[in-house]
Amino acid sequence: MGIIIHEYRVVLPMKVEEYQVAQLYSVAEASKENTGGGEGIEVLVNEPFDLNDPNLPAERKPDSPLQANGKSYSKGQYTHKIYHLQSKVPSFIRAIAPKGSLEIHEKAWNAYPYCRTIVTNPGYMKDAFFIKIETMHFEDRGAMENIHDLQGEDLQKRNVTIIDIANDPVSSKDYKKEYDPKLYKSAKTGRGPLDKKDWISTVEPVMCAYKLITVKFKWFGLQGRVESFINKQEHRLFHTFHRQVFCLTDKWHGMTMDDIREIEEQTKRELDEIRSKGELRGMKAED
User: Fold this and answer.
1) Which residues form the Phosphatidylinositol transfer protein N-terminal domain (predicted)?
2) Which of 54, 69, 111, 259 is in the most buried spot, having the most CB atoms within 10 Å?
């Protein structure tokens, strides 16, 4: 089985403690934008976890310790979601995948500032498909060389990409004027617009989301194409999502985690209602 290891570094003009609220608020918004017409996101579990709890069910335990930057984490919020994805995968996979098989399971342990997400397809690809996303949120400009403590071959295999939310190109189908950091100025914080080429080296406050992606995929004849697609899609998602996070600053700024949990609960009810109705929405696959 081939393995791809790629690290994306997303620099953002906000504090690490602000991003926890910003990210969760934006996930709730994006979930609604990508649900409808029989597709979208179903939230099965959204509850606190404590790895030291002897009664924690086995299926809610990660396969290895949660750690980065020399620290270990044991408490946070656990989520289990199902993504119903028929139109969100490339046509060469849709052509061979049986109907109903394109359900992706996502389990996440958000032990902020560290978070781990595991993406699988247990109904069809089983052990032949696995994505692990580990994120460490840190107050700097993306200069930490090995914040995920990679060793040996894994470190040698790793590629690194810095994502510039303002200056990296955006496809016309993903571009939305209201989510353009070059144009957005926050009324509450005075941050933005990010209209200078060197904003990453000058902006305050600043932080970086270090996202380490490990992709394992084994599907005869398609491995290279699928790995390439996943890598391209992760870059696209991280870029467009974080443009949105910044341009929603005036929506989330000042919210508490209690506010976020209330929004998540309301969003879960809305997703259950709109998933089966209306038209397909959100990002489609780029073949």
Assistant:
1) 4-268
2) 111
